[in-house]
Known about the structure:
Layout: E1 3-7, E2 10-12, E3 18-25, E4 34-39, E5 45-51, E6 57-60, E7 68-73, E8 78-83, E9 92-100, E10 103-106, E11 110-114
Amino acid sequence: QVQLVESGGGLVQPGGSLRLSCVASGFSVAHRAMDWYRQAPGKGRELVGTINSRGRVTKYADSVKDRFTISRDNTKNTVYLQMNSLKLEDTAVYYCAWPIGSEVHWGQGTQVTVSS
Length: 116
């Protein structure tokens, strides 16, 4: 059974950092493209970034470029989202996702709140 479990969210002040983790089970993240999304209150789900099957990040949303970094540890079957220089507008529920064909497996999400 495929499962994605995010963790690492919380309350942080503007300018702070958080690292989100997404632990996968039921499949190997190695050689898979994985996505991070977020959904702010009252808004649609936004693609934050994608790490491709070769472990290279192929895209970041303009709003997070140069601040967020996606990485993967195949030995831990985990994908990470390092978030630096956090802004108020980064407040959202963050999800990891495994797109496979026309289907997408989602985690339950982790809340990130940026507030002073």
